């Protein structure tokens, strides 16, 4: 701008000198005017260029400032993203631990159930192995009752089957079944629930302790013959008329006789 003012001052000086000088011709005045106009145009152009340059610099400075702000914002976003990623990894680890713990619990539960089932099956196998094995009964000519009259069943090793001596009781009933394997029982002791009193009247001892070879009588009107006893009170018996089966056999294996058919009384042989 200072240079522009100098040029203008010079142009003004030339113009005034040309006007005041009496020896300057018209052509010279025109040339001087044209020179001044050219210089004015040059100054105007330079002013515009300078203005544009200043504007460009201002724009660039603004962009630089914005770029700096963008860099700061980008760094902040990256830091926030890192924090979110860290939280994500923490949650994934918690989920993995929870799933692992659930899997371990399920495995432990399945193992416990399998062990419990194995124990049940082992106990069942043991009880089945302890059941007396039966073989088919063969009729003899000394028996008065025909095979069609007497229900057939397996015989229990060690037992004596006296079918002829049990004729005082209806064939297939529980009293008949016990009389067959325990000939010492009375022939006219009445119904099953009457046997304890009849036995006591006949001089037999009665009680509540299970013993092998004793007769068990339930007040619910059923009798059976005891073939085995365990220390925990479980027993095995042979009987007839149990669950619709009229033949003499061991139908229950080991069982607890208490509380299933009324009060229990044992009749002991003399």
Name some characteristics of this structure:
rod-shaped; endopeptidase fold (from Nostoc punctiforme); 2 domains; five-stranded antiparallel β-sheet; two-stranded antiparallel ribbon; single chain; 7 strands; 270 residues
Radius of gyration: 62 Å
The figure for the number of domains is: 2
N→C terminal distance: 149 Å
Counting helices, strands and paired strands, the structural category is alpha+beta
CATH homologous superfamily designation of the largest domain? endopeptidase domain like (from Nostoc punctiforme)
Order of helices and strands: HHEEHHEEEEE
Find the CATH topology of the largest domain: endopeptidase fold (from Nostoc punctiforme)
CATH class of the largest domain: Alpha Beta
Going across the major beta sheet, what is the strand order?
3-7-4-5-6
Q: Which CATH architecture of the largest domain is right?
A: Alpha-Beta Complex
Unreliable residue runs: 1-8, 10-14, 132-154
Tally of individual helices: 4
Please report the total strand number as a whole number: 7
* Oligomer category: single chain
């Amino acid at each position: 701008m200072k240079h522009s003012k100098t040029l203008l001052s010079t142009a003004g000086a030339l113009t005034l000198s040309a006007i005041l000088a009496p020896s300057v011709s018209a052509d010279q005045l025109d040339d001087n005017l044209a020179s001044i106009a050219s210089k004015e145009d040059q100054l105007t152009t330079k002013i515009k260029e300078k203005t544009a340059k200043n504007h460009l610099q201002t724009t660039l400075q603004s962009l630089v400032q914005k770029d700096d702000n963008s860099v700061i914002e980008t760094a902040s976003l990256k830091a926030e993203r890192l924090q979110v990623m860290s939280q994500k990894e923490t949650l994934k680890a918690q989920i993995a631990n929870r799933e692992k713990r659930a899997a371990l619990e399920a495995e432990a539960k399945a193992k416990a159930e399998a062990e419990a089932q194995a124990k049940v099956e082992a106990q069942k196998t043991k009880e089945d192995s302890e059941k007396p094995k039966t073989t088919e009964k063969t009729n003899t000519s000394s028996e008065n009752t025909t095979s069609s009259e007497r229900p057939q069943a397996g015989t229990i090793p060690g037992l004596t089957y006296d079918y002829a001596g049990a004729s005082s009781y209806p064939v297939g009933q529980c009293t008949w079944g016990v009389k067959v394997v325990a000939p010492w029982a009375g022939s006219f002791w009445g119904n099953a629930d009457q046997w304890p009193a009849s036995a006591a009247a006949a001089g037999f001892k009665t009680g509540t302790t299970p013993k092998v070879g004793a007769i068990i009588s339930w007040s619910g009107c059923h009798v059976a013959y005891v073939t085995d006893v365990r220390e925990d009170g479980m027993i095995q018996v042979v009987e007839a008329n149990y669950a619709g089966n009229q033949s003499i056999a061991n139908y229950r294996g080991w069982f607890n006789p208490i509380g299933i058919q009324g009060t229990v009384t044992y009749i002991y042989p003399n």
